[in-house]
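Morning, I've got a small favour to ask if you have a moment. It would help a lot if you went through both lines with me. I owe you a coffee for this, so here goes:
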Amino acid sequence: MSEETRGHPGTATYLIVAAFLTVLTAMEVTVFYVRALKPVLLPVLLSLSAAKFALVVMFYMHLKSDRWPYSAVFLFQLFFAAAVIISLSLLFATFLGSP
């Protein structure tokens, strides 16, 4: 048995990860409709989206079994995009005023 075959997850593992992704998506939708969370809506949605992105990249793209530089390429882009979004949100909030 080769190392690639032995380390490959089974169907149950994929279903568990899909269930986690479903729960994260449901949390995103729920957070959007809960009025009490409006002041922290952006950070919560960014965190949940980042968790989903990292889970998909690390698991479904099989980067969890590759060397770390491959994962770093995708995760760096995630952090860079999050920094741009947060910066633009703060910029618009500063100059246009909070709604």
